[in-house]
Design brief:
2 domains, 3-stranded antiparallel beta sheet, alpha/beta, Aspartate Aminotransferase, domain 1, Aspartate Aminotransferase, domain 2, globular
Length: 360
């Protein structure tokens, strides 16, 4: 199949803007007349610094990041932040964690190595099919921070509100960053693995209130110290240069398409089509409850694993790729991130209709 014959619903690494890919292809062997690929130029060069600064500036404008916060472009993936956050912010005290999916659970387990973790809420008993309400949050009076994952890729739930906690807010926005407007000033730290809405895998964006830097535990490696990374401009060591370059190109696309507001409007259109069908289907059933549903990852299933497999197989034959659900959740998952065109959602709904007729 050719690229124009498929829609890629992968949860990450995921679909990227075609304009960004085409620009990267055109510049692959000769970046800005340098005679070198962007993958070959030194991260210490003025040429790469331009790329780095450009990406940070665009991200700052798109997200309205205040001057109180620093933007770090780091390695290690979001999972590295599971340890970096408590090492830098917990100070051996207590932190509140909301466990609403697999990754927030892993983050809580990692943080427990460096202090006391209090589970302020968990949706495990109901299979992570919803987000807890503000009233359900059991908050610690002395918590150093409150941690939550804004969007749960595996189970398809998303926080539709910003919790009020009285402590520093820390949020994993890996799956829905740049898909909705966020008041960054409310957060002590936001981080995101880039491989869903921003760039290829290998880059992690951290937006941290500079007032939180310098509190790290003595055992914290320099590479995980926010203070050190701020002081070195994210370049204590070689950063993920290619991914930062691709981030810059992706942000160009977001700006051209109308910014975060336009991304928000499109996500509602895409996900709305899918949920409208699922809510009326007798064969395909949505996992997440209304009011908690993700706009980025639509999860659903049939009544049997065999029929789930048939759905995924038939979809692939139609060029609708990577719809198989995560191994711990089963079923299906349609990841409709920013770069997924509305036509992709329409094509999936048409296939769902046909599948319904054949299997009702």
């Amino acid at each position: 199949m050719n690229r124009d014959q498929v829609y890629n619903f992968a949860p990450g690494p995921s679909t990227m803007p075609e304009s960004a890919l085409k620009t990267a292809a055109a510049e692959m062997l000769n970046f800005r007349g340098s005679g070198m690929s962007v993958m070959e130029i030194s991260h210490r060069s003025a040429l790469f610094q331009e790329v780095f600064d450009s990406a940070c500036e665009k991200l700052r404008k798109l997200m309205n990041v205040p001057d109180t916060h620093e933007i770090l472009l780091l390695q290690g993936g979001a999972t590295t932040q599971f340890a970096a956050i408590p090492m830098n912010l917990l100070e051996g005290g207590t932190a509140d964690y909301a466990v609403t999916g697999n990754f927030s659970n892993k983050a809580a387990e990692e943080a427990a190595k460096y202090g006391t973790v209090h589970i302020a809420a968990t949706t495990k008993p109901t299979g992570h099919d919803r987000i807890p309400t503000q009233a359900e949050l059991d908050l610690s009076p002395d918590a150093k921070y409150f941690y939550y994952c804004a969007n749960n890729t595996i189970y398809g739930t998303e926080w539709q509100y910003v919790p009020e906690t009285g402590s520093t807010l820390v949020c994993d926005m890996s799956s829905d960053i740049l898909s909705r407007e966020v008041d960054v000033s409310k957060f002590g730290l936001i981080y995101a693995g880039a491989q869903k809405n921003m760039a290829p895998a290998g880059l992690t964006v951290v937006i941290v209130d500079k007032r939180l830097a310098g509190r790290e535990l003595p055992i914290t490696p320099k590479i995980l110290s926010y203070k050190t990374m701020i002081e070195t401009g994210s370049m204590l060591n070689t950063p993920p240069c290619w991914c930062i370059y691709m981030l810059d190109l992706t942000l160009d696309w977001v700006i051209k398409e109308g910014g975060v507001k336009a991304m928000d409007e499109r996500k509602r259109e895409r996900a709305g089509m899918l949920y409208d069908f699922l809510d009326n289907s007798k064969v395909l059933h949505p996992h997440a409850l209304p009011g908690s549903r993700s706009y980025m990852n639509v999860t659903f299933r049939t009544d049997s694993p065999e029929l789930d497999a048939a759905f995924v197989k038939g979809a692939a034959e139609r060029g609708l790729l990577n719809l198989k659900g995560h191994k711990i959740a089963g079923g299906m998952r349609a990841s409709v991130y920013n770069a997924m065109p509305v036509e992709g959602a329409k094509a999936l709904v048409e296939y769902m209709k046909e599948f319904e007729v054949r299997n009702a």
